[in-house]
Structures are given as structure tokens and as C-alpha cells.
Automatic annotation (TrEMBL):
InterPro entries: DUF3429. Keywords: Membrane, Transmembrane, Transmembrane helix. This is DUF3429 domain-containing protein. The chain crosses the membrane at residues 28-46, 76-98, 110-131. It comes from Psychromonas marina.
Length: 132
């Protein structure tokens, strides 16, 4: 379900374009939604435990949130290139923070995250190719 807003923005752009007179800007909505999702995913690194590993994860989480926030103010072209790098970087960070990396490839959660991250990166590539 989380992929639907990306797809709808791509579809709406094809349908209505990017007319400045329009009330809704599909490109801007795509950009904003992507930033929101990246910051939400970065928040999943937070844990209630206060040991060193999780404290580092909290700092890294905040860095990813700031990274995503910066792209709200950048041109869309660059946003479509650099936000996917944030998604991939976050997935890699999540993997590196795991205690037991041996079972990660069979973990349903990690398989889902890998699939969704790949889909988001592909949707950003489609947007980049369609809009520029």
C-alpha cells in the first residue's frame, strides 16, 4: 500500500501534467512523499534499549532524517537521484546493525524490505526518465 502514492503521482503526472495553475502538483507530491517515507523508515532504527549499538542507531537515524529533509529544498532532478541512495543506504545500515546477519537472507522482514526498497528505487528511476 505504501507504494501506491508513488504510482498515483506518476499516473497523475501523465494525466494532468505539471501545470502551475493546477491545485495539485504530482511531481512535488512524489518528492514530499518520498521524503516522508525515508524519514519514517529511518525512525525504525530507534530502539528503547540504551546500549551502545542502539545509541549509534539513533544517531544514524537522525542523520538519515536530516538527509531526507535536505531534499525537500533541492531541485526535483537531484532529488530523484539522491533520495533512492538514501533508501539503499538505510537498508544497508539496517543490515549492518543486525546482531545475527546469518539468518537475514531468509528473514521475511528483510526480504520484504529489499523488495520494497528495490521497487521504490525503480519508481524513482521511472519518474526521472519520464520527467526529465
Amino acid at each position: 500500500m505504501g507504494l501506491l502514492p508513488f504510482i498515483i503521482c506518476l499516473w497523475l503526472f501523465k494525466l494532468i501534467g505539471n501545470d502551475p495553475e493546477q491545485l495539485f502538483n504530482p511531481q512535488q507530491a512524489f518528492q514530499f512523499y518520498s521524503v516522508i517515507i525515508l524519514t519514517f523508515l529511518a525512525g525504525t532504527l530507534w530502539r528503547k534499549e540504551s546500549n551502545t549499538i542502539y545509541s549509534s542507531a539513533q544517531i544514524i537515524s537522525n542523520l538519515f532524517c536530516l538527509y531526507a529533509y535536505i531534499w525537500l529544498f533541492m531541485p526535483l532532478f537531484y532529488t530523484l537521484i539522491f533520495l533512492p541512495l538514501g533508501y539503499v543506504g538505510l537498508l544497508a545500515t539496517e543490515y549492518l546493525l543486525l546482531q545475527d546477519r546469518k539468518t537475514v537472507t531468509t528473514s521475511q522482514y528483510f526480504i520484504m524490505r529489499l523488495t520494497l526498497t528495490t521497487a521504490v528505487v525503480v519508481l524513482h528511476a521511472i519518474a526521472l526518465l519520464a520527467w526529465f
